[in-house]
Amino acid sequence: MASVSALRAGAALCLAIAAPACGLQASAEGEDASLELQDWPWSRRSAPGRGGERAPPGTGRVLLSTMTFPEDNLPLDVTVAHQVRMVSKYPDTIQHVIVDNRPPWMEPVNRQETILQSMSKSKVSTVRRVDYSVYDSPKYLQKFFETGNETDSCKTLEDAHDMSDISGQHMSSNTHGMFNFLEACLTAEAAVDLCVFLDPDIVVYRKDKGMIEMAREVFATQPTAIALNPPTMCSAFDEAGSDTCKTRRPGMLSQRYLIINRQRLTSVLPLKVPHEEFNVNFEHLFGDSLRRVNSGGQRMICNGAFAIHPFSARWAHCRNKKENLNIERHSRLVAQSVKKETSGDYHSFDMTMVEGLKEMISRVEAGKLAKPQESGEPAELQSVSNMCEDMCVDQNRIAQGLAW
Ligand SMILES: *[C@@H]1O[C@H](CO)[C@@H](O)[C@H](O)[C@H]1NC(C)=O
């Protein structure tokens, strides 16, 4: 598996891909923060040092993974470089894996094929094509879930129904992709002790220590924890919080961001799911079955690091919900604010969107973040929603130099 140590400042990736991808590294550093920003101490921090720190001897390695579908909306070279820099203060311990999911009922072409090839060739990531020949194999399913019915396979989930109208094929192909990630985790080299999954659009922040280092501390003090969700922005910036992480049992373990203790997961597989309940998406299958194993899934509550999802029309209750400032619109707004609107494409992506995305990421890495406030605060200050897991994007804050 490829080491991504060279990716710390995005430099290797820049060389590997194309000139327009460069410039990601902390352009925010030299800029003057506006006066408003100075009220909020986190916004004045310069971006983390390039190159990162070397991990102390004996530190485990991390398998960090994301999944791509043919129609993804963000270029993975940009988002993966960001995630690698921010999940850990020791990026040289990270091995990156892309789960390349091309369900047979979709066009077999991934729109960012050239990016995938380039990341693979430059050993920034290992690209794993999801194997659909085992999609209807009960044996393959039984590596991960035991339903007690010998005919169940991942394909069985095509008949599943989600309350929020996700199609059965969506759930089955997503679950099959997550199995590919778990398989990569199980078969990783012995030095890997943590396996982390992040959706490609997850934005990550660390002031110093990353969520990986924090997760190691949680696993050390909680012997029954198997999978963790990272801290949210609200706990990351909780001034009453302590340096030691706490945890709580989440209402539902989220699949967007998962930090898994490899050895403990291995010891509980296959997870038990009653056949009658084998009709929901991976998130529920995994979270519900872990819950039966000693509350194996926990939410981290820690200071100084967080993960967050962009605005979500589905889950967020933001004051300006109607504007639907999803990550693409959000990125274009950021590009406008720094006058980086441009024509043309970056691979199959709109160049203005990509420029804005890079600027937004730079702002996050430099800590140009609004104080997290949910509803209940004056509406115009609301910056997060969905229990601090989704962004509420605001045009005025972007104009002031903040990330969202
Ligand atoms: C297994 O599941 C299938 C499909 O739901 C069902 O038709 C079959 O009766 C089940 N077999 C057993 C042994 O429960």
From TrEMBL:
Signal sequence range: 1-23
Residue spans of biased composition, Low complexity class: 43-59
Keyword terms of this UniProt record: Signal
Residue ranges, annotated region (Disordered): 37-59
Name recorded for this polypeptide: Nucleotide-diphospho-sugar transferase domain-containing protein
Origin species: Prorocentrum cordatum
Lineage: Eukaryota, Sar, Alveolata, Dinophyceae, Prorocentrales
